Each structure stands twice: as structure tokens, then as C-alpha cells.
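Re-running the complex after MR caught last week's input typo. The corrected sequence lines follow. Everything else is unchanged.
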Amino acid sequence: MIDFLIGLFLASLIVALFTSRLYRLLFWYSLNSLTLGLLALFIGEELDDKAMLITGIATIVIKAAGIPYLLKYLSQKFHLVRQIQPEIKVQYAIILIPAILVFTFYLSEPITHMIRSGSNDIAVSISSLFLSLLLMMEHKNVAPKIIGFLCMENALFLLGITATDGMPMLVELGIFFDLLMAIVVINLLLHKEEANQ
Amino acid sequence: MMLALLIFPALMMFAVSFFKNKKAKFLLPVTSFVILLPMVKLFMLPKPYALWGSYLVADRLDTYVLLVSSIVGIGVTLALLTLEKHVRVSGNAYRRFYRFFAVFWIGLIVSILANHMGVYWIGLELATLSTVYMIKTNHTSAAHKEAWNYMIVGAIAISLVLFGIILMYASAKPVLGEDAMQFDLLLAHAKEIPSPFLFEMGFAIATVGMFVKMGFFPMNLWLANIERASFYPVAALFSGILESAVIIGFFRFSKIAMEVNYSHLFVFVFVYTLLTIFIVSFLIFRAKDFMRLFSLSGVEHMALIALFWVSGGTFAALLHFGAHAFLKPALFLSTGVLESNGKYRIAGALRGYVGKRGTMFWFLVSLFLLAIISLPPSPMFFSELYGFGAMITVAKESDHMLAMIGAILFLLILLSVIFYRFVAVYQSMKYEGKEEEKHVYTSEIFALLLFALALMALLLPQTFSYLRGIA
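Corrected-run output:
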């Protein structure tokens, strides 16, 4: 089940890279977060780690439901452009994405030997980090860049879960708090975005 | 109790920022003054002093950085009193600036006092996010674009730091368990880390994230453009306070990395900082306005601090850090007057000052400009002497003495390019251009005097012995 969820996590991010509609992108981000939350729940149960279970629930509530809903609300409030065409053409992206995946699997090989947990999980989280960066780079609009940043945060969260069997609870909650703060700041920045349009 | 005292003034500032009464404007700087009191108290307490279990622990290094930052904060709020006299700023934007300044303070206190990698990151992220809105208080398209730019690039940089922290934590977790996040325990058990390669990789990634945040290679112009687009007090906060929170993280991580493998750390930081100074020196040579000039000079100084630190010149690095933290905000704040009415001209910027305040202003700015290029008796002159001395000492202990002398000579050539540019700028400011009358306000003079006094305090024998004690 964990392998399936990790595959789904990566797949949702890859599909997000080809998406040209804002709401569809929000859906893929939501699915990405949902798989991450479920992963935390499964791994937490396997390790009998209550902190990770709480983190998993918080991920599902905040990241899979709360943030996508809030971003959709903000995009409606500020009339953000919903047609978000990636700058990298599909034919190039088809070559680039597998190249990134192969490169990161190769790059993370020495690290995976040093970490006891599943080696592929770490490679997937590092490749997700690069793919999230690509998502930020391939769009000119602000909204996909925000989602790229949120996906990057998800990738780091996955790395935290897989490489370290979970970070301390305080750190996980702190990251959630900072994420909410980021949403507040994004809201304030979008006020001007509306005025500029 | 002490932690509550430290955070209370920031909470007070946050609350006062909601008052719409015009007199509240004068109350806001008072809250900034109040921040200094618990800082001084903390500075006097015996170290290490646990503020919140093992998460927040005050030691000699972080109380020094916090004291310096609180003095800079007072200077900035003094200059903020007359912000509307130099630039167009609405009352609402002004209050919001303080609201986020309060959040910034809380993030800063947490990150500087953190004895825990995760808590450090949370504080740094909070401080970074709160500065995004400060950039946007300037209602121009350029500032708006740069606020987004800062949000996105800052988020990438801070994510790199978290990525590095996770790897470092993973490397030490088999030995220390969940305590592998604590700086002091990591330092004590650095030699026992089972996978040093993983730790070093995490350190390198976190360091690149921190260096990007400070405008090092390859993001040299990133910070300069942001500071150009925002109001001058924001630039002063960036250079005097936010960078302090970043560099203290570098100090802490590198202390552990020194124990893991010193030569790897030294070569990595040495090459990175040298490359940064190489590029920055030519960018400074081409800079055509004050903000970019001072911002790029700030990058150069942060690179020197990192270099001195890894060379074992702790005293030199901390002295240089203190001098930079006071000098750069002083210069950024003076740009409000130097660029009166939005004029970016360098020529004649130090002319046209009348009265006692005017004379005092150009005199102090001249001193700061000459101090920033390390002319004696600037603290930077002494810190560079000690710093280069530390580099030679490191080389003596290795087999690379000639390479180090070559590198120091190369560095001196680059520093002389910067020196030449600053002297040329100073001459242009004082002896060229048209003479136009400029207004200097009392609060600005107080801010500059505060920085001048703080700089002089850095040269006191007591300060020297305190800084040597940190080493």
C-alpha cells in the first residue's frame, strides 16, 4: 500500500506539470497532499508513532482540503487567470520529466545506502522536489508558482517521513504554522495582483 | 518568564499596529525601544541560559547577535518616524509594516536563540514570510514584482535549508534519536555520526540555501533588486537583522561540519565565498545607485564573515559581523535623505546640507562610507586584519601555504576594486553635481548617532574580550 501511495504521489505531481487549467491543478495538488497524508497515516501506524498519525490527519485536513479550497476561493475573489499554459512545450516536458526522474534516482543512490528505510521512497521525494521546482519554473502566472511552492513543501515532508521515520512533532506543527502564514501573505500579495489586472 | 519578556514587546507592537489614532505612530517606536530591555537583561545572565527547555538556549553567541539586532531595530524605527517625509506611504501601509515587523521580531528571536535545527528553520521561515509584506508597503509595480520574487526565491532557498536539515537529522538519528535536531548534542557527538557523507551533503545543501538568501553566487543581484524596489528601512532590516538570523544558522551548522570533516568544509566555503566576492566586486564597480551599491557591498561583507568564520577566525568574523550590522543599516537609512525626492543621482548627494543637522548628517555618512571600506579606525579594518591572519594560520597547519597566499592576494585585489569604487562614489557625492537643498530630520540624526555609538562600542576592550570569549 505504501508503494502504491508513493507512486500516486509522484504521478499526481507529473500530471500537474502538464495541466493547463488552474482548478485542475488545485485538484492534483489536493490529491498529492491526500496521498501524503495517507502515507503518514500508514507509516505512522506501522511504526506505532502517534505524532506521525496526528501529522497525517493534519495534512489531510489542512493541505488536501483546506488550502486547495482557500486557494480556489482566493482565485475567484481576485479573478485570477484560470488558463495556465506551461511555458515548456509538452513534447519537451515528456523528455525532461523522465530525465529528471532517472537523474534523481542515480543521484540519490549513495544516500539511499546510508538510510535504513526504503531507498526508492527517498529517490521519489528528491525527484518530487525537482519536479516541483520545474512546476514553478514552467509557468509565468502566480497561481501555479504558489502551487509549485506548496508541492515542494510536500516533497520535503515526504523526505522527512521516509528518510528519518518522521521529524519531531514540534517541527511538523511549526511547518504547518508557517504554511498558513504563507497563505496569509499570499492573500495580501494577491490584493495588488487584482489591482494590476 | 524571560522568553515572555522577550516576546512581549513584539506582541505589544502587533497590538498597537491596529490603532488608527495618529499618535499611535509615536507609540510604535517606543515598543521597539522596549525590546532592548529584556535583551540587555539576557545579555547579563550567566550562559548557557535555557529559555524553553532544550529548544531555545541563550549562549554568548546568540545573545551578542540578538543585542546587535535589537539596536539595529531601534535605529530603523527611529528612521521610520520620518518615512512619509521622504516617500509616499499610506497610514494603513505604515501600520501594516509594523504588524509584520512584530511577527518578524518573533521569528527572529526564535531563530537566533534556537538550539534545535527544526525550531531554527521555523523561526527563519516566519521572519522571511513577514518581510514579504514589508517589501510591498511601497505601492509600485516594481515593489510588487519584487515581493513575489522574494516570496518565490526565498521559499526555494528556505526549502533547501529544510532539505539539508532533514539529511543532517537523518545522518545523526541512529546515534541521537530525536535529539539529533539539537545543535549542542550534534556538536558533542559529531565524530560519532555514522554517515558523515550524508551529513556533509545535508550541510552543503542547507548552506547553499542560506547563501542564496544572503545574495551569494549565483543570486548576486536578487537581493539588490529587492532592496532597490522596497523602501529604505526594509533594506536596513534585511541587511542588519534578517541576514544576522541567516548567518547565525551558518555559524551553528558549520561548527558541527568542522568536527565532521574540516578540510571539506573549508574548501567548499572558501571556493564559494571567493567566487561570490569575485562577481560582486565587479557588480559594485558597475553599480549606479546607492541601494544596489550598499546591497552588493553587504553581500561582500557577509561572504567575508563566512570566510573568516570557517578559517577559525571567530573573533574576526564576529567583529566584522557587528560592524556590518551597524554600518549597512546606517547607510541604507541615510539613502532616504541622499536620494531626496526619489532622485537616484550619486553626484552631489552629499552637498546641499545646511544647519547643524545637515552638517552632522553629511559628516556621519562620510564616516560610515569610509568605514565600510575598512579604513582605520573602523572595526572592519581590525576584523579584516585578524581574519586574514586566521587564514594564514590555517594555511600554516596545512601544506597549502602558497595557494593560500595566492588566494589572499587575489582577494585583496578584489577588495581594492571595491575600495576604489567607494572612494570614487564618495568624491562624486561630495565634489560633483549640483547643490540642491535636502532636509534632514532629528530622528534620522538620532538613528545615525546610535549606529555611530554602537560602532565605537565595538572597539572597546570589553567588547573585544567578550567576542574572544565566544571563540
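None of the earlier attempt is carried over here. The first helix of chain A runs from residue 2 to 18. Chain A touches chain B through 36 residues (CB under 8 Å).
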